[in-house]
Amino acid sequence: MRDALMAALSTVNDPELHRDLxxxxxxxxxxxxxxxxxxxxxxxxxxxxxxxxxxxDVRAAALTVPGVQEAVITFGAMVxxxxxxxxxxxxxxxxxxxxxxxxxxxxxxxxxxASLAMDGARVGLLDADVYGPSVAxxxxxxxxxxxxxxxxxxxxxxxxxxxxxxxxxxxxAGQALVWRxxxxxxxxxxFLKDAAWGxxxxxxxxxxxxxxxxxxSLTQTIxxxxxxxxxxxxxxxxxxxxxxxxxxxxxxxxxxxxxxxxSYFVAPDTGITYDIFGRGGSxxxxxxxxxxxxxxxxxxxxxxxxGTPAVLAHPDSPAAxxxxxxxxxxxxxxxxxxxxxxPDQLTVV
Length: 349
Hints:
32% helix; nucleotide-binding; P-loop_NTPase; GMP Synthetase, Chain A, domain 3; FSCA_dom_sf; NUBPL-like; Rossmann fold; ATP-binding; 21% strand
């Protein structure tokens, strides 16, 4: 009967990868006992955006097997590394960039990291905005200091389940860094290769605005899985976002999607929606996946100032829900790209 169950499961496709679960090696266990099918599915990311659909389809397929009256579906997750992992122990490096400042890029990066960690992924966050580091403050760790381990490597700090390094935790508060390009390059090298990141599924890098030395150093130093562009809907932001897209294209970094931040505002007293900066402008950026439209909410700013990401502080707010969905959509895009460049997986049963 197990063979019949596996045959039925081979008709179920992953909705994003468009291949069946059996050939993808996502069926960790399948058995039938006293009319009950037991199936464990190993997702390609803990933040799978279509887990519910997969569960529905697996159950429906199992119940087509003669003699099966009930199906118990359980899940595990294993983020698969690319053919060439970025760093020892780090599977995927994801860049979060923007063409200009003021679009909420750092806030989005922090919430993406926290959201992926909430779903069970091992996540790191590198604040590469050396001149204007804000990640430490948004994670409530502006007063903490980075220390070294026994091997004289930087030990990342930890907040809300996210390991992170920021220049704000390495230099005196309020001190301006007046560095030229070579010094920036050296700092980025140290953050990446002289830090004890440990085993990570995703290392999210919050880039500085623009298309300068830090971006160039990162893309030339390590293998990057892909980038996310954060923009607001108005044309002045989209003009600079287009430049960021062109930079990643020239650096051969795939753009995994676009996040439109401050997409709209819903008045809390009337419920009326206002498109303060316009809306849907990110669609002008061409054929790129729209990972999410994040509403403008006062609580997101308040939570950042208080040192707790919005997805944790107000998880049921519209902005937090949109950020959670954007993070899962991003994880799904990583899985799609990874599986597209790997050979067929062997089934583990």
